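for the recovery benchmark. tokens below, seq after
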């Protein structure tokens, strides 16, 4: 579904992503793990069209999208739930969801259906539909960011560190939702530092180190890998 070939992304002299090639197949959860600054967020931004790709190629459903602007990628079925969530703090939960459907704003029935789907996935959002997003807890904001990304009805959802800064019980809710979405047929790219849980739900995974893929395999294989255990799972 998504293919990256020798992708390079730089910020001035800093090469954040170097020669990354990877493939995401339909219906998979693929996890990308890596330390702080490894280039994970930059890679997702390159996929979403939010950072220009200076070298290599990004293909989505067989179509070269390397130069396609971000909003058109949303229209093609690619959505990003960004790190730090990026919800509109002074808008209600409901309004945040509706804003996520800006490409379908002329189809109120589809928008209402999308909002309902978001509330079914995260019932807490229904309870808090009229609350300003800025006053939600961190976990609730993460749920809102995911539900908002889903409003564009993506076929591929990119999640940038959805568990960041959240209490274990909320992290569990988020991972349960991720698995439910995959079971409903959505393809998911999951960038995480919570390697244990992320590898646990991943069909396949890649390790990113200073902008390069250094290891790949099934989630189970990487969970067993001694170098992964030492570097990302705190095991010795
Ligand atoms: P984290 O887990 O800490 O979010 P990450 O793996 O997502 O890290 P990135 O945020 O992609 O890493 O950063 C990769 C490298 O690119 C880092 O060295 C970072 O300082 C640099 N970088 C990221 N964004 C910018 C920017 N807008 N301008 C300049 N350098 C940047």
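predicted aa per position
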């Amino acid at each position: 579904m998504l293919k990256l070939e020798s992708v390079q992304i730089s910020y001035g002299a800093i090469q954040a992503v170097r020669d990354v090639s990877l493939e995401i197949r339909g219906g998979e959860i693929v996890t990308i793990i890596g330390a702080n600054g490894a280039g994970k967020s930059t890679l997702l931004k390159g996929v979403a069209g939010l950072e220009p790709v200076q070298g290599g190629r990004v293909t989505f459903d067989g179509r070269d999208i390397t130069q396609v602007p971000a909003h058109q990628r949303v229209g093609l079925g690619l959505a990003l739930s960004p790190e730090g969530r990026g919800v509109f703090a002074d808008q209600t939960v409901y309004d945040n969801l509706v804003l996520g459907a800006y490409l379908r704003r002329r189809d109120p029935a589809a928008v209402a259906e999308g909002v309902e789907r978001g509330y079914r996935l995260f019932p807490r959002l229904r309870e808090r539909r009229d609350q300003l997003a800025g006053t939600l807890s961190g976990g609730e904001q993460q749920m809102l960011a995911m539900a908002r990304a889903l409003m564009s009805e993506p076929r591929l959802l990119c999640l940038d560190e959805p568990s960041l800064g959240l209490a274990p019980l909320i992290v569990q809710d988020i991972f349960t939702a991720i698995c439910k979405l995959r079971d409903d047929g959505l393809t998911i790219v999951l960038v995480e530092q919570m390697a244990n849980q992320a590898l646990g739900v991943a069909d396949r995974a890649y390790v990113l180190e200073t902008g390069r893929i250094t290891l790949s395999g099934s989630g189970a294989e990487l969970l067993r890998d001694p170098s992964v255990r030492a570097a990302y799972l705190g095991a010795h």
